[in-house]
Amino acid sequence: MIQIDQKNEAILLPINGSMVPFHVATIRTASSQQDTNRNSYIRIIFNVPGTPFNPHDSNTLKFQNSIYLKEVSMRSKDPRHSNEVVQLIKTLRRQVMARESEKAERATLVSQEKLIVAGNKFKPIRLSDLWIRPVFGGRGRKLTGTLEAHTNGFRFSTSRAEERVDIMFGNIKHAFFQPAEKEMITLIHFHLHNHIMVGNKKTKDVQFYVEVMDVVQTLGGNKRSAYDPDEIEEEQKERERKNKINMDFQSFVNRVHDLWAQPQFKGLDLEFDQPLRELGFHGVPHKASAFIVPTSSCLVELIETPFLVITLSEIEIVNLERVGLGQKNFDMAIVFKDFKRDVMRIDSIPSTSLDAIKEWLDTTDLKYYESRLNLNWRPILKTIMDDPKTFLEDGGWEFLNLEASDSDSEQQSEESDQGYEPSDAEPDSESEDDDSDSESLVESEDDEEEDSEVESEEEKGKTWEELEREASNADKEMNESDSEEERKRRKLKAFGKSRGGGSSGGVQKRPKFR
Predict the structure, then answer these.
(1) How far does Cα 297 stand from its chain's mean position?
(2) What pLDDT is stored for residue 5 in this prediction?
(3) Bond before 285 cis per omega within 30 degrees
(4) Which of 195, 224, 387, 456 shows its CA 20 to 30 Å from the CA of 293?
(5) Assigned domain for 444 exists
(6) Are 38 and 79 in contact (CB under 8 A)?
(7) What is the reported pLDDT for 361?
C-alpha cells in the first residue's frame, strides 16, 4: 500500500516487498484510472534528467552512470483508496512547488530596512476595516485589516498572524488617494520602487480600499417607486456612508502628510497625489476598458486590475496612432526613456478625447506625434539602440512627424510641376523685346521676298543653278569677243534657247520646300 509522509514530503512505494521513499519534488504527474474489472491503477511519472523539460543539473552530472526510474504503475482493488492517494500526492506537490517558487522570488527581492514600530511616545496613525489588493493567498475567508503608519513605514495586518505586510517610506515611489465619486470604492494606493511580497505574490503596487456601497444588490420582489420613502432613505444612508468614508481617508492622508513633513523625510519627497477626473479618458491598457486618469506626476488607472501607473518623467515621447478622419477610436503608444522597456499601449481611446489629450500633453511638456497606422516598436527601438548616433543625426523622432512629411511631399510635387528654367537666363527689358520682335518681322519679310524670287525663276523651267551657270558662260564669251554685234547675237541666242527650253518642258520643276 502506498504511504504519504507529509512531514518529510515523501511518498513510500512498495517495491519488491520494501517501502522505497521518493521525494515529492521528483514526481512529475500522478493519475488514477479504472478498468472494466473494477481494478484501479495508480500511474506515477517521475522527472528524469536529460529529457527536454528536465535538463541535467549539478547533482545529476555527478552521477552520470546512474539509472533513473521513469514510471511506476500500481494496481489496487479499492478505487476510493487510489483516488485518495492521488489527491494527497497532488496536494503535497502543489504545496512544495508554491513554497519553492516563493523562495525563488524572495531571493530576487531587494532587502528592505526593518520597520520601527511606534512606541508609547508616538501613537501610530490608524485606518481600520480595509481590504488589500493583491489579496493574501490561501483558501480561507478573506478578512479586513488595519493600516498603521509607524516611525519609518506602514504596516497592514489582519487577525491572522501570517497575513502582514510592511511598506517602508523609503520604498514608496508614488502615493495616491482617490475618493469615491463615481466609483464604488475609496482607496489609498502605493506604487513602489522595488518589489515586495504580499502573501506569496511579488508586486510593486499595493492598494487598500473600502467599498462605499454594496457592490451586489438583491434583485427580486416588486418594483419600487422612485418616490418610495424607504428607497429615498436608503439612498440618503449610502451618501452619508460614502461621505464618512471619504472623510476618514482624508483625515488619515492629512495626518500622514504631517508625518512626512518632518526633516528626516524631506529627501524622500513623499506626497499623496490625487487623480484629476476632469482630464480622464476611457481606454484599454490591458484587456478590459477602464477610465484612465492623469495626476500631477503620473497617468494612472487604480480601479481595475492589473493596475496602471506610468511616471510622466520616465516618458520619452507619446505617439497617437490611427488618427484620421472617419476613425471613431485611436491608440496611444508611450515610449519610455529606457528603450529596453516595452512600449506601453493604450488602445481604443474615443476620438472625442483627442483634443483634450493633446492639450494635457502640451501642459505636461510631453512631445507627441500623430500617425495614421500602428507601428511595430520593437524593431524601431532595436535599431535606435544599435546605432543611436545615426538616429540623432537623422533628426531623431522627426520621422514620426506627419505634418513635416506632408509638407515635404507637397513641396516636391510643386517643384515637379514647374517647367524648366535655365539658371543663367535673365529677363530682358520691354524695349529689347520690342526690338527683337521688329527684327524678327523684318527678317521674315526678307525671307518671304527671296522665296518668291526663287519660286518665279523656278517656274520658268530651269533651276537656279542652271541659270547661274549659263549666265557665267555668257559673260566669259562676251569678254572674249570685241564686237558688239557678236555680243548681241549671243544674247539673242541664249535668250532663244531659254524660251525654247521653257516651252518644250524638258526641264522638270523643282519641288517646293517650306
Answers:
(1) 21
(2) 87
(3) no
(4) 195
(5) no
(6) yes
(7) 94
Rounded to 10 deg, the angle between the 484-504 and 464-480 helix axes is 160
Residue 176 lies in a domain: yes
C-alpha distances in Å from residue 145, one per residue of 55, 126, 192, 414:
44, 11, 21, 72
For residues 298 and 285, what is the distance between their CA atoms, to the nearest angstrom? 15
For the chain (length 514 residues), average pLDDT per consecutive 10? Answer: 86 88 90 84 85 63 76 87 90 89 84 84 87 82 90 92 92 94 91 91 94 63 64 85 93 94 88 93 93 94 94 95 88 94 94 94 93 92 92 88 57 50 48 49 48 47 70 69 60 56 47 48
Instruction: Kindly state whether residues 256 and 384 are assigned to the same domain.
Output: no
DSSP one-letter code for 218: -
Centroid of chain to Cα 491: 106
Determine the residue type at 134: P
d(CA 476, CA 487): 11
Sequence-ordered list of residues with C-beta below 8 angstroms from that of 140, at least 6 positions apart, any chain = 160
Which pLDDT score, from 0 to 100, does residue 490 have? 64
The predicted structure's pLDDT at residue 80:
87
pTM assigned to the model: 0.68
d(CA 99, CA 191): 26
DSSP state of 284: B
In a domain, 494, yes or no: no
Q: CATH number, domain at 158?
A: 2.30.29.150
CATH number, residue 97: 2.30.29.210
Query: Of 329, 309, 60, which is closest to residue 172 (Cα–Cα)?
Result: 309
User: Residue 125: helix, strand or coil by DSSP?
Assistant: strand
For the chain, how many structural domains are there in total?
3
* Beta strands 201-211; 10-15: pairing state: unpaired
Return d(Cα 318, Cα 310) in angstroms, integer: 12
Considering the domain architecture, whether residues 170 and 62 belong to the same structural domain is answered as no
- The domain containing residue 208 runs over which residues? 125-214+237-273
DSSP 363-431: HTT--EEE-SS---HHHHHHHHHH-HHHHHHTTGGGGG-HHHHHHHHHHHHHHHHS----TT--PPPHH
35-to-30, 75, 260 alpha-carbon distances in Å: 17, 10, 70
Alpha-carbon distance 33 to 36, whole Å? 10
Torsion of CA 138, 115, 310, 377, to 10 degrees: -70
DSSP 129: E
Question: Cα(241)–Cα(245) distance, rounded to whole angstroms?
Answer: 6
Is 443 a domain residue? no
